[in-house]
Amino acid sequence: MKPMNSKQNPAKRRPRAPLLHGALALAAAAVLASLPGPAAATELSCDRIPDLMRQFLQKHYQFNTPNDELRARVVDTFLRRLDPGKTLYLRDEATALEKRLQGVLLDVSEGNCAVLRELHEDVPRRYAAMERYIERAVSRDDYAIDPNVTLVIDPEKRARPATVEERNALYDRLIDFQMANYAVALAAESGALADGAKDDGAKADGAKDEAADASHATIEVTPELLEKARQRLLKRQALQTKRAKETKLEDMYASFLDSFARALDPHSNYLSQDVFDDFTIQMQLSLEGIGVSLTYKDGYSVVDRVIPGGATAKQKALEPGDKIIAVAQEDGEFVDVVDMDLRDVVRLIRGPRDTTVRLGVLRDENARLNVAIVRERIDLEESAASLRVEEIERGDKKLRLGFVDLPSFYGDHNPAKRQSSRDMRKLLKEAKQENLDGLVLDLSRNGGGLLENAVEIAGLFVADGGVVAVKDTYGKLQVMHDPDDAIAWDGPLVVLTSRFSASASEIVAGAMKDYHRALLVGDDHTFGKGTVQSMVRQPPGLGAIKVTTALFFRPGGVSTQHEGVASDLTLPAEYDVDEFGEKHQPYSLATQQVAPFVEAHSAGGESAPWPPLTTDLVGELAQRSAERVKATAEFQEYEREVAEARARGGIVAVRDILSRSMPTEDATPEEPEDGEEHELTAHQHEALEILADYVTLGGHALADNRLSSANAPN
Fold it and tell me: 337: domain range?
C-alpha cells in the first residue's frame, strides 16, 4: 500500500481518447433490436399472453387492474418500441396507429392478437421502403456529405415528421451523420487519422501518449473513402431490413408483453427464455466476456452496469450509459451494431478467454472513442470488497486513512457462500487493528445487490436500529433492523456516492445520512431507485417476468425513489448527469413517505465516539473542498466538458464529426503491474482529502463535545 502526501496531487484521471462529436446512426428497429428472443421450448403464443399479463397485475405495486392511464401508457410504450427513431410512421400515421391500439389491451386479454399480426407484416415493409430511399440518396452521382447539417440526437426531443418531405429531409440528415461517422471510422482503421495527428505535432507514441490523445485531424473525404462508407451504410440497411423480415410473430408478442410491463414502471419487464438465460448467467458471474450488463434504448446497445471484477471494470474501459455502436474481433473490421438485435450484439462481444474485442463507443451523446478489452472470466475475488491505506499530511501529523471499495452487495441466499457483509466485517476489523484515523466507503459505482447484505453492512457502522423499511403491494410496512447492537467501525466515516449509486447502495447511504453517522460526498444525489423487484420464472420456453412489488424507505421516513440520497458535499460530475436517474425514467413510480423510524440511541448522540457532523463543521469542510476542487485540473476539465455538452443541447454537427479525430490506437488504460494498485480517481482522492479535514477538524469538535458533557451538571 502506497503512502500519499497531501501536498501532491496523485489523482490520475482515466486516459481519455480524443473526442469525436459522433452522430446518431440511422434510427430504427425497435421490433428487431429490442425484442426478446424466440423461446427454446414452448413458444410464446397469443393465448398465453393474458395469463402473463394477469401475473404482472396481481403482483405489481401500483396497478392491479387495467385502467385508462395504463392503456394510454401501453400504447405510448409500444409505439416507441415499434418506431424509436420516429422514422417509420408520419405524424398522422402514428396518430391513427395510436387509435388502432387503444383497444389492444382488451383484445389481447381476450386472445385476439389481430393488430399484432398486422404490425408484424407492416413494420418490415416500412424498413424496406426506408432502405430503398437511402440507397437512392447515397447512389446519386452528386452525393456528398454536407458538413453544415445538424441533428437533434435524442428522438424524444425532435418532432415526428408530418409529411413525406419532412421524413425524407430527416433521412437525409441521418444519412449525412452516418456517412460521416463511417468515414471517420474508416480513416482511423486505415491510419489516415494517425498521420494527421502526427502532423499536428503529437508525439510518435500515438494514442498511448497524452499529447496524441489531445490531437485533432480534419478528415478529407476522398471519393474512395466516400464509396467505402456508402457500402457500409448500404450493408447495414440491408441487414436491418432482412432482420425485420425474419422477425417471428412470437417476437412481436414478446415485444408487446414487454411494452405492457414497462408501462407499469421502468423496472418491470418480460424476459424471454434467451434473455432470462443470459440474466441467470450474469447473476452467477460465470460468463467469459467483458463483464457488462447491456440494455437496449433507441436503437443502441447501452451499458447498463459494469460488473465488478470483470474485464471492463478492471480495465476501466466503459461507463454506464455508454452506447456501443460497433464491434470488431482482434484486428478485424468493425461491424456496425446500431439497431442490431441485442442478442446478436452480445454474441459478437462474447468470446474465448484472453482474446480481444474492440468496441466503438458513443459517450455523452457527442463523444466517440474506441476501446479494446481482453475477455476473461469474471473472478469473484476481484469483485469483492477491498481495503487500501493511504497517508495524508495535515500540519505536522501524518494521517493513516482507509479506503474501502465496495463494488456491489454481492452474496448468496445460501449463508455458507461468500457474503459482502462478512467481507466488510473482516475489513473493518483490520482497519481497527491498523489504528486507522478514518475511513472512506466508496459506493460510487455500486449499483446494488442483496438487500440483506446492505442492511447488515449499514449495521456495522451504527448500533441496533431500523435501517430500511419495505412497503409492499398491500400497504404493509416492514422495518428491517441492524441484526446486532455492536459497531464494527466507530471512527470518522465518509461515504463516496454518485448518480450511479443505486438501490442497495442508497439504503446504506440513506441510513448513514439519517443517523448522522457519515459525511456523504460525490454527485448531487444518488440514482433514486427505491423500488423492489421480484423475478417469477415461467414454464420452460416462456422465460420469466420481473415485476416491481415494493418501495424502500429510509429511517427518516422518505423514500429513495426519484430523489435518491443527497450529498453533504458535492463534487463536479465527470459526465453530464442532469437527465440521468430514476426520475427521468418513463413511468417511474412516484415517491412516498412514511413515519420516521430513526432510533436515537442507534446514532449514539453526544456519547458517539465519532466526530459530530455539525452545520459549522460541514460548512468548513465544504469551503476547504471547494478550494481544492478549484485548483484541481481534473475537476476543471470535467466542468468544462459538461458545460460544453449542455451548451450543445444534444445537437451535433457533421462538421464536428469530420474535424475531430478518432484515437489512433485503442484507448485502453494501461493495467497496473501485479501487486500495484490502481491510481485513485480525482473523486476518490478528494474524498480522502475531505476525510483528512474531517478527522482533523472533527477531532477538535469531538473533544469539545466530550468536555462539555463531562462538565455538565448531574
Answer: 287-377
